[in-house]
Amino acid sequence: MSLTPLGTLRGGRYRVLSRLRAGGTGVVWRALDTRDDRLMALKAVPLASGGAEAVEHEAEAVARVQHPGALRVDAAFTEGDHGFVVMEMAACSLADLVDAHGPLPAGVAVRVGRELCAVLANAHAAGVVHRDVKPSNVLVLRDGQVRLGDWGIARVHAGGHGTTRTGAFLGTLPFMAPEQRRDARDVRPATDVYALAATLAWMRTGRAPGELYVPEVGAGLRSALGDTLAGVVLEAGQHDPQRRPASAAGLEVRLATCGAPCAPPEEAQAWLRERCEGLVPDEGAAGLPVASADGGVLRGGGAPPPQEQGKEDRAWAARAVRAR
What we know:
Layout: E1 9-10, E2 14-22, E3 27-33, E4 38-46, H1 51-65, E5 73-79, E6 82-88, E7 92-93, H2 94-101, H3 106-125, E8 128-129, E9 138-140, E10 146-148, E11 155-156, H4 178-182, H5 189-205, H6 215-225, H7 227-236, H8 248-257, H9 265-276, E12 290-291, E13 297-298, H10 306-323
Antiparallel strand pairs: 1-2, 2-3, 3-4, 4-6, 5-6, 7-9, 8-11, 9-10, 12-13
Helix pairs in contact: 1-3, 3-5, 3-8, 3-9, 5-7, 6-7
């Protein structure tokens, strides 16, 4: 059974409304929880691609992390020819935000970096390595809070299970540590530290930094980030994982004590909230419909304001049910 057409009810309660994005392990859709009348993100992974194991694995990884900064997973189930993960809804990703507004101010970038460190520190203590920390997996809620999402390829140790086949290539190259490039099974907390350092450099420059351990890249980052913050990033980006901070907890200490500016949490949250307004990451340009308040259909470039989105999605769901 295909996931579409729009308006399909999944899991007995989640009405598919519009496509948000394609992720590393599946396609993510906006859905309406018809029992609680709230918008959720619904990830669909084909069973032919290991969907049943993948959704169970992602739910297990998030449950082990036990931190509010990990994108919340409310349910995982299989139905038809897909596995599904139900997650809290975000307004945009850091990738969306920087594409629209440019690099983050230094203080906001450091605050976001420290918040991500806190999430990953819990993960590392629980035996979980994310393996795909990057800007598009750093999500911003409508109130400006930051969440780390897409735990679908996380490596779970300490009695859990992994998802990596022998020779499998998992991750995203510009943010991937050297040991992970060689073998996706050869990961440890310091692997996430490298990816977070590359993400932090990206937050300040708006572009992938290149291999952090290459001298020419280091010189460019010192010019772009300043010696203080660049020093932390380059230490975390060493080629040898033994020379990086051993876990995200160690990187957070370095960010907290290096002297780089760090915005107060409320200030950073307000900055992110203001710039996420109006950023609705539907793939409307691909011809996927998004409902408008007057009953019509908006396409690429015509997404409604965030404050209207819930009302319009419920209207679209009602029209879709009547049309079936």
